């Protein structure tokens, strides 16, 4: 029936979108039928291909993330970590020299930039930049944007909630890492196995039904437009719906600005 409808629509000069495409198998089938656009949760699910390894740049950036999440990392360690990535070094220097920080003097070294931002702020910024630049494909960029939006949304909700299981900054990491498996096409358990992070975050990312599971379910339901489920989860976490809606819009605006800054190519910068 779907094939017949698609064949009929070929008579018209229009693009045709397939809706409710929630698996990669469904995506492949719809693409084979000639659909032009696809809506659904399929791209947020990992497409695991047995034997596929991480690309060299993604592997390097995952290693950098491990250093950044290590509580024992020093300023020197973190400066050396960023210096290994030319684009990340450029973005860091551009960020600390931006008018928004109002430093009033130029910062020309990675070590100086790290010292100015401080431990927590630097780790926060660098982790965002790494996630945003893991995959430069259209799919990867969309997932990176969603990761940033999820991170900001969960951070804001945690600050609003009566009893958040973790601090807002830690909830930010939960959202930021929630789509790593979809971005990299690798099992989440393998990606976070050696990552020095709160074990509750690691367990939730790997599917364990702990206190963080409802928060991950919430962002998944938002992405899939399952608003009844969203309402129930917010109610269960004692979060005001109107406040959550404002937080979502603020997170979306922040993610757009942050993603642009985190992925800007030096060759395109003014």
TrEMBL record:
Its name, as the record gives it, is: HDOD domain-containing protein
- What PANTHER family does the entry give? CYCLIC DI-GMP PHOSPHODIESTERASE CDGJ, PTHR33525
EAL domain location? 1-60
Q: Which residues form the HDOD domain?
A: 54-243
What InterPro entries does its record include? EAL_dom, EAL_sf, HDOD, RNase_Y/CdgJ
Could you tell me the superkingdom of the organism this chain comes from?
Answer: Bacteria
Question: Mind telling me which residue stretches traverse the membrane in this protein?
Answer: none
SUPFAM superfamilies per the record? Answer: EAL domain-like, HD-domain/PDEase-like
Organism of origin: Fundidesulfovibrio putealis
